[in-house]
Design brief:
Distance between the termini: 54 Å
Structural class: mainly alpha
Family: Belongs to the TatB family.
Number of helices: 4
Number of strands: 0
Keywords: Cell membrane, Membrane, Protein transport, Translocation, Transmembrane, Transmembrane helix, Transport
Main location: membrane
Membrane topology: Single-pass membrane protein
Order of helices and strands: HHHH
Helix content: 40-55%
Pfam family, one: TatA_B_E
Largest sheet: none
Length: about 140
């Protein structure tokens, strides 16, 4: 939340607070602010506990952080500690630096080489004999 605030900004805020409120009122203001933050946190914790107790024992593992959409999607796709879709293997096997540096890629699943964007060759047709000139192809109404 405050990761983009630098030391100069913090120093400026401190100097402005001393100028605006004065050195005699500033400790009382800080104390009042901290007590307000403690009250808000205790209110939120009590509300969370009330909600958990009302939900019942089937929601004992419920975490309010799971309501965040990013966390919810990550938990549903990745599982708790599992990787059912194999996303971790794909992340580990994808080596962008080798592609950008034009170095050969590391072998993945027994195949070495670089990443290519060429279309694969079409698979040979394995259905019956070739059509004669003027012959209509078979029609499958379920396929259309």
């Amino acid at each position: 939340m405050f990761s983009d605030v630098g030391g100069l900004e913090i120093l400026t805020l401190i100097v402005m607070a001393i100028i605006i409120f004065g050195p005699d009122k500033l400790p009382k203001l800080i104390q009042d602010t901290m007590s307000f933050i403690r009250k808000v946190r205790s209110f939120a914790d009590n509300a969370k506990e009330d909600i958990r107790s009302e939900l019942g024992p089937e929601f004992k593992d419920f975490e309010f952080e799971d309501l965040n959409p990013k966390t919810f999607v990550r938990k549903q796709l990745m599982g708790d500690q599992q990787d059912p879709l194999g996303l971790k293997d794909m992340k580990e096997s994808l080596d962008i630096r080798s592609v950008l540096d034009d170095k050969p890629a590391v072998a993945v699943n027994g195949r070495a080489g670089s990443v290519g964007f060429d279309k694969p060759a079409p698979a040979p047709a394995s259905t019956g004999a070739p059509l004669q000139p003027g012959e209509r192809p078979p029609f499958d109404p379920d396929a259309t």
